[in-house]
Recover the amino acids of this structure.
């Protein structure tokens, strides 16, 4: 069974600084997708960034980028120039094969200090 | 365009009752998935519907059921509610499996007393 592990329950970053959120996963599939979702207090899960496993190039979306290490099964999220609005829970998620469900990690609460 | 709409936003039910939650996906999205979010278990997959057919189901008891209508709107039903069913229920829709990710609604907060 596929699992997603986020070992850090909480992190804090100074506004304008850079922070990296860690995620590891376990799978025997060769074709899969990885996602980072943000959940602010409004509860809605917002897609931050996604990565196709077959692509070697790391995905980037403005201030958000990932470090995808396929052999190590690691998928970390880097947030540059952190803003107060980045404070939220962040979930790493995985989806693979004919099964389209998302498997989520436990999430990490990110706080941003002004 | 309108996002994924879930109704109601909040719900309080008594143990033993049943409840129906509704999800309207983004126009054009044919896949609707449901997730349960609790502090202890995190986010867990309930089921997915595509073109009115359930094509995947998570590991939940038969008290949890769902359906999808021809306009892609989906409902989930929980019968004989238990205290442990208290959770945030999230619905997500997508155009195609995985490719564009999933767009989530704001959820229904169910409290069972």
């Amino acid at each position: 069974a596929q699992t997603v592990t986020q070992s850090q329950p909480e992190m804090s970053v100074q506004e304008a600084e850079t922070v990296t959120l860690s995620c590891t996963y376990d799978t025997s599939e060769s074709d899969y997708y990885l996602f980072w979702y943000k959940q602010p207090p409004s509860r809605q899960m917002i897609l931050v960034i996604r990565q196709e496993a077959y692509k070697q190039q790391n995905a980037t979306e403005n201030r958000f980028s990932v470090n995808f290490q396929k052999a190590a099964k690691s998928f970390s999220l880097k947030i540059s120039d952190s803003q107060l609005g980045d404070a939220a829970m962040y979930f790493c998620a995985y989806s693979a094969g004919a099964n389209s469900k998302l498997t989520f990690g436990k999430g990490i609460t990110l706080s941003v200090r002004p | 365009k309108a996002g994924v709409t879930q109704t109601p936003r909040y719900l309080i039910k008594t143990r033993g009752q049943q409840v129906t939650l509704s999800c309207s996906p983004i126009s054009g999205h044919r896949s609707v998935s449901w997730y349960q979010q609790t502090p202890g278990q995190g986010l867990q997959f309930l089921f997915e519907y595509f073109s009115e057919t359930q094509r995947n189901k998570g590991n939940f008891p038969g008290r949890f059921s769902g359906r999808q209508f021809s306009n892609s709107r989906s409902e989930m039903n929980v019968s004989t509610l238990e205290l442990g069913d208290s959770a945030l229920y999230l619905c997500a829709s997508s155009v195609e499996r995985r490719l564009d990710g999933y767009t989530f609604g704001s959820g229904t907060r169910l409290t069972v007393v």
